[in-house]
Fold this protein.
Amino acid sequence: MPSSTFLNLPTPKKDRIIHALVTEFSHHPLADAQVAPIVKEAAIARGAFYKYFTDLNDAYHFVYQLAIQTVHRAIPAPPVAHSAATYTNFTRSFLEQAVASEYFLFIKNHLLFNEQNVSTSVPLDSDAKTWAAATLSHAALREAIATSDSATQALILTRLNTALKHLFSEED
């Protein structure tokens, strides 16, 4: 979590730092990311980076939360009833919003390389169908975001919907 010093920065400076973080984490897996390009692009001292964030992991988690909140903000909340259509439509909406987002490359890099660094698992008290549907949806999202071909993305979402129909015992 960023420090209160960072949160209280003037908006233009905070935005410049966020942009530099997004740029670095969009082009490099977290394991390869470095502070030097971030501070250079943000035009801040290296010491200031560590005044704002504990380390690169802390900065990454901040950007991850920001990206996910931004993408989710544009997606209507799914209905409480779980169905193949609910999960498929939510996954489709997330994919569309992510692709259109300023965080697209960050999200893509996250799904392909950095996912293990952020806990995004389904709560352990979820029933088996919820866990399976969320796991399938997430795997489909990872596959779809890895390709830039919309026809392939559509096929992945169709396959997801078919698998979820089986899971929820819905007619094909």
In short: The chain has nine helices and no strands. The CA atoms of residues 75 and 100 lie 12 Å apart. The chain has a mean pLDDT of 92. The radius of gyration is 18 Å.
